[in-house]
Amino acid sequence: MSDIYLPTLISEALLAFSGLFGGVSISFFWQPQRLHQHSRFMAGIIFGGISMGAAVALGGLSARWLKIDLNQADITLGLGYILGAMSNGLIVWLANFFRRHEQRDIFDVASVIKSKVRHESLTQPDLTHNKSDGE
């Protein structure tokens, strides 16, 4: 019975290991500003958990979609690295986006996203004028 699960466990371990290196390679160059308030050890645990979790969770799905065999170690390592790097890149991009727009109204953020999708230019809103009476 354990012979059935051994190749799956090995491929999942390879996905997690390579996803960790993919996420760490991105985290060396690109980190959200809020992560600097934590220690380097905690930042490493956060990035490692995100990249390993994404590589394990999305590895089988992406392998089936790409029609590749996870029993081949080199393909598994490459796929895990790419998934780990992409997951941390996406998380960092989202964290920086929300940090930049945290003082804005949801409608202002929606108009920024619409303009980016439509490739329009927006005028910069006046962030010094805060509405205190709820208008």
Q: What's the number of domains? A: 1
**Beta-strand residue fraction:** under 5%
The portion of residues assigned to helices is: 55-70%
Major pleated sheet: none
The count of DSSP E runs of length 2 or more, i.e. the number of strands, is 0
The topology string of helices and strands comes to HHHH
Stretches with pLDDT under 50, minimum 5 residues? none
The number of helices is 4
Q: N-to-C terminal Cα separation, in Å?
A: 66 Å
> What is the 3D shape?
elongated
Mean pLDDT: 79
Structural class: mainly alpha
Radius of gyration: 20 Å
Characterization of this structure:
With 135 residues, the protein is mainly alpha-helical. The protein has one domain (2-118). Helix content is 70%, strand content 0%. The chain contains four helices and no strands. Helix 1 crosses helix 2, helix 1 (2-27) crosses helix 3 (73-100) and helix 2 (40-66) packs across helix 3 (73-100). It starts with a helix and ends in a 17-residue tail after the last helix.
Comma- or semicolon-separated keywords:
single chain; 135 residues; mainly alpha; 4 helices; elongated
Structure summary:
The chain has 135 residues and is mainly α.
Write the layout of secondary structure elements.
Layout: H1 2-27, H2 40-66, H3 73-100, H4 106-118
